[in-house]
Amino acid sequence: MNFTVKEDKEFKYIDEGQGDVIILLHGLMGALSNWEAVVNEFKGQYRVIIPMLPVYEMPIITTGVKTLSKFLAKFIRHMKLKDFVLVGNSLGGHVGLMYCVASQENVRSLVLAGSSGLYENSFGGSFPKRGSYEYIKEKVEFTFYSPLTATPELVDDVYATVNNRERVIRILAMAKSAIRHNMAKDLPKIKIPVCIIWGKQDKVTPPDVAEQFNELLPDSELHWVDQCGHAPMMEQPEKFNVLLRDYLERLNQSVSI
Q1: pTM
Q2: Which long-range contacts link 147-153 to residues 24+ away (Cβ below 8 Å)?
Q3: Do 183 and 94 form a contact (C-beta atoms < 8 A)?
Q4: Structure-model confidence comparison of residues 173 and 248, the more confident one
Q5: Which run of H or E residues covers position 199?
Q6: Residue 207 Cα distances to 84, 108, 115, 215, 247, angstroms
Q7: What are the angstrom distances between the C-alpha of 114 and each of 1, 20, 144, 152?
Q8: 203 near 230, Cβ under 8 Å?
Q9: Half-sphere exposure of 81 (CA within 13 A, CB side)
Q10: pLDDT single digits (tens) 236-250
C-alpha cells in the first residue's frame, strides 16, 4: 500500500486527498490496506481518512466496541472533523453505529458494509485454532465468496495474529463485546441517511442482517453486491466504489438543494 501512515500523539492514520471528509473504519482483524481501492478511487475528490483502531493496544479490561467508539470520538475531536461520511466494515460498522447514536450531529451520513451490531458468525461459528495453518486458511476463505480473495499474504497475517497470545485474548474480548452490544434498540435513534452496501453471499453477517438494518434504520437504503462475501470493498472493489460514488453524489445533491 503506497500511503503514508501518519502519527500524532496516540493516533495513527492515513489522510489522503482534499475536500469533503470520508472516514473509513476497518474490522476486527482488518487492516488499513483493506480500503486501498476505496482510497485510490476517492482521494482525487474527497479527503479520505482511515484511523487505525487500537484493537490490540487497549487494556484487556477495557477492550470492547464502546471503548473503540470513544477512541473514534477522541480522534474526530483531535482532527477537528465535522459533517463527514463514516464508512465502516464489520466491526468498523459497529463502531460507527455506536458513534452515531452518541454524536450523529457531526455525521452527514453513515455507510455500512458487512457490519456487526445485530448478528455476526465470526470465523464460521468457531474461534480459530492456534497453530493450524490449514484451519486458518479455511476460515479466512469463509469470509469471502471466492476463496482466491484469501491471498497467502492475508492468510499469513491472520495466522500470525491468532498465534499471538496477547492479540488473541483481545480478539476474544472484542468479539464478546460485539455480541453484548446489540444495536437493535438503538438503530431507530439514528436519523441521518444510511447507505447499506452488502455482499449477497456474506456468510459472516448474512443477507438477512442487512435487511434487518434496513428495516430498523429510519432513513436507509440497501444495495447488494453479487458474488461477494463479508468485505465488498476488498472482494468487489469496483462494484463497491460505483455504489458508494453514486450514493455520495446523490447525498451531495440533496444537501445542496
Answers
A1: 0.92
A2: 149/229, 149/234, 149/235
A3: yes
A4: 248
A5: strand 194-199
A6: 27, 25, 11, 13, 20
A7: 23, 24, 11, 23
A8: yes
A9: 26
A10: 999 999 999 999 999
